[in-house]
Amino acid sequence: MTSRYAQLLFTGPVQVHQERHGSRRNYAAMGEGPAVADRLTGAEAAFAAGCTGFYLATTGSTGWPYVQHRGGPPGFLRALDERTLAFADFRGNRQYITTGNLDTDDRVSLLLMDHPTRRRLKILGRARTADVAAWPDSAGPLVPDGYRAEPERVMLIDVEAYDWNCPQHIQPRFTPAELEEALGPVRERMDALERENARLKERLAEAGAARRAT
Question: Among residues 69, 80, 100, 156, which one has the fewest Cβ atoms lying within 10 Å of its Cβ?
Answer without folding.
Answer: 69
